[in-house]
Amino acid sequence: FNSERQEGWLEDYSYEEKLEMAQVICEALSNDIALIQSGEESLKSIAHRIKGSAAALNLVQLGYVAMQCESSVGSEQETQARTALINELETIVSTTQQWLEMSESN
């Protein structure tokens, strides 16, 4: 990862563990995006789960956006916060996939 805000969760792991974690993160966050878009689960519960995961992984910006989304459910800002959360998730997935592709080519 080139972005400091995105690599906090990788710092304490070996190279092999980083690869495995990155794959798991891509899959989990991609699933979260799909779940938000499908509406199968409440936005508030998804945002709450993402907020906890972000804290565990030291993804500060994601945690903040998830917190904003969770607290905006039912308000005029819900749609904007939902979009911001999806955008942040997509950014992390994209950045992580790029890192995986670079790592696998080395």
State the main characteristics.
elongated; mainly alpha; 4 helices; 106 residues; single chain
Topology:
Layout: H1 15-38, H2 43-57, H3 60-72, H4 78-105
- The mean pLDDT is 89
Structural class determined from secondary elements = mainly alpha
Q: What's the quaternary structure here?
A: single chain
How many strands, which pairing sense, and closed or not: the largest β-sheet?
Answer: none
Describe this structure in words.
With 106 residues, the chain is mainly alpha-helical. It is 75% helix and 0% strand. The protein has four helices and no strands. It has helices at 15-38, 43-57, 60-72, 78-105. The chain is elongated, with a radius of gyration of 14 Å.
What would you say about this model in short?
By secondary structure, the chain is an all-alpha fold.
